Amino acid sequence: MNKRSSGQSAHPPIRRQPDTSTANPRRQARGQRRIDQLLDAADTVFAEIGYERATTNAICAQAEVSPGTLYQFFPNKQAIAEALAARYLERLPETHRVAFDVASAHAPLAELISHVVDPFIALHRQGPGLEALWTGSVISDELIACVEGLKQHIEKSLAALFRARCPRANRAEINRAAATSVQIVNAFLHIAVTGAPKQQRDGTKELKTVLFRYLEPILGE
Amino acid sequence: MNKRSSGQSAHPPIRRQPDTSTANPRRQARGQRRIDQLLDAADTVFAEIGYERATTNAICAQAEVSPGTLYQFFPNKQAIAEALAARYLERLPETHRVAFDVASAHAPLAELISHVVDPFIALHRQGPGLEALWTGSVISDELIACVEGLKQHIEKSLAALFRARCPRANRAEINRAAATSVQIVNAFLHIAVTGAPKQQRDGTKELKTVLFRYLEPILGE
DNA sequence: GAGAAATGCGAGCTTTTATTCGTGAATAAG
DNA sequence: CTTATTCACGAATAAAAGCTCGCATTTCTC
Q1: What separation in angstroms does the CA of B20 have from each of A25, B14, B81?
Q2: What's the CATH number for A17-75?
């Protein structure tokens, strides 16, 4: 059954398993372009029907590429989702830096909220698939852990911002407020990112209203 | 290829396709018990791994029943989810009746909130699978439409309650407040229903806090 | 008790979908 | 130009999952 058995005397034609790591030195520019193209396609397909219902063939079709090409760069379907998540992750620090700028800690509450919320909405608007990854990530344990860690991190940054604003406030209450705020933002993300432009604007505004009324008693005006 | 071709002269052994409609007059008590058993199993499995990852075999195993038996009562996997949704739907009017009791319209706001929210949390605690259906229902267009209709209905009932409380409030604002409130409750459902009892209690309390602060400027104390 | 219908079983059929393999063109290195 | 490597293809493979079929058993009706 071994297909290589006929030519044992010659150098065995070792099929090098494709190196899918991002740091492959031999990767050509063309390859990187294909990867981006495939990730874009996956982003679109995931956003449309979710990870589970997305077939590798559908991703290939969307990218106008054959299955063999896809598997040249990704060892399996799960790896596509993880690579896509990684690509989003790269953009996150910038968003994070802008959103949690300490300078805004003492601005009026409404301004502070906008300053934190807007960058995250903008991030989600960059790619339609982020929400699918963020919310319905029953994809792999690693990915779940990654997203969970991310939320924790955001929560901590938010708590730090709150503490900078109100140094003498109750610590437990601040932490709870941060967790709840993240929860609220998540709830409104979908409506604030998808749908008609007017809906998006209204949704965003309403989100900020909810946050303002919730946070005002804790953080003051 | 036709498996029945050998015995054409005899009465064709018509396999009556099993009647899966809920109103089958010939259904025996045993059959109804099996259906409930299968729905319970599906509820458990859906809650654990979600609809997509749930296999019919897993549901059969959970119900300790063979695949043939499952397909005696359900034409396909999708129908299981729909039947489960229908079973929850049956319980909804009662919840609805209790929650939107007009008598509570003029109670203090905190009381009103508890009166509306608690029955819904109780409903979700009855079966772990409701949340999977409610939130991640990328199952079928019908089911999506059904859940969407349900949310609309709840929204309208809530708006009616708000209007009963504040007859002279701005109509558009009331509707918006109802929609937002539903959104907020949804966001907290998971945490208020799953997890450790303490988490559930804390989550529920926090949910009510958010609602209170959001609604207070609109509905008054 | 006898016939008919409902229920129950589980091996296996069918479809779907992830993944591979042989081949060959494009590209980089020497 | 020659050679090694990457990139690309798409039919073929294989595993998974949905679903069926013939037959056995139970229950209902008369």
Answers
A1: 59, 17, 13
A2: 1.10.10.60
